[in-house]
Amino acid sequence: MPTKDPRVDAYIAKSADFAKPILTHIRKVVHAACPDVKETIKWGFPHFDYQGIMCAMASFKAHCTFGFWKGALVVPAASLKKSDEAMGSLGRITKVSDLPTAAVLRGYVKKAMALNDAGVKAPHVAKRKARTPLAAPAYFLAAIRKNKKALATYDALPPSHKREYIEWVTEAKTAPTRDTRMATTVEWLSEGKARNWKYARKS
């Protein structure tokens, strides 16, 4: 029996208006192709499981994505979108017509099911090399230390989030721009925000 997760209903309801018909269509096609599919939420967005992870969909500010866990083994190379276009197997999706036909999508789902039934592992993806910590300039640290809340937030950030702030400030091309970014950095940190807080989905 198919298993639907109310969190997926909530995810679709909270998505942008353009995204709702896309996500609803994908969900319908997956259930039609795989009656025993189970829905869940992993890493903040809907996943469809069948004998393990099978595929997932997500919505963003201006596009949606849909991809298969074993994408390179499911979607033909000619149809597989480059990862720099958007995460997932099918690139940026802004309307239902951007997707392959329902028949083609069902074929992809059935192929993904067969791979999971056979216990085929996902293609190896090379891990990114760990980036060396980026040292914060003296002026950067001095500005943050003047605000206790900002300093506490900054100290608690993981290295990758610290890097985002440092790069944003230090890559400014003019001194006025740098000063403005520095002031904004202190303000956001004092409010407990990461550099890209605007793009973080609310749970």
Short synopsis of the structure:
This protein is 44% helix and 11% strand.
Describe the structure using short key phrases.
203 residues, alpha+beta, Aspartate Aminotransferase, domain 1, 2 domains, 8 helices, elongated
- Biggest sheet statistics: 4 strands, antiparallel
As a whole number of angstroms, the C-alpha radius of gyration is 21 Å
Write out the strand line-up for the largest beta sheet, numbering strands in chain order. Answer: 1-2-3-4
**Euclidean distance between termini CA atoms:** 28 Å
Number of helices: 8
Q: Quick one: how many beta strands?
A: 4
SSE arrangement:
Elements: H1 6-14, H2 19-33, E1 38-42, E2 45-49, E3 53-59, E4 64-68, H3 71-74, H4 102-117, H5 138-145, H6 148-156, H7 159-170, H8 175-190
Antiparallel strand pairs: 1-2, 2-3, 3-4
Q: Could you describe the 3D structure shown?
A:
The structure is a single chain. It is elongated, with a radius of gyration of 21 Å. The chain has 8 helices and 4 strands; from the N terminus they run ααββββαααααα. It has 2 domains: 6-117, Aspartate Aminotransferase, domain 1 (Alpha-Beta Complex); 138-199, no CATH class. The protein has helices at residues 6-14, 19-33, 71-74, 102-117, 138-145, 148-156, 159-170, 175-190; strands at 38-42, 45-49, 53-59, 64-68. The protein is of the alpha+beta class and 203 residues long. It has a 4-stranded antiparallel beta sheet.
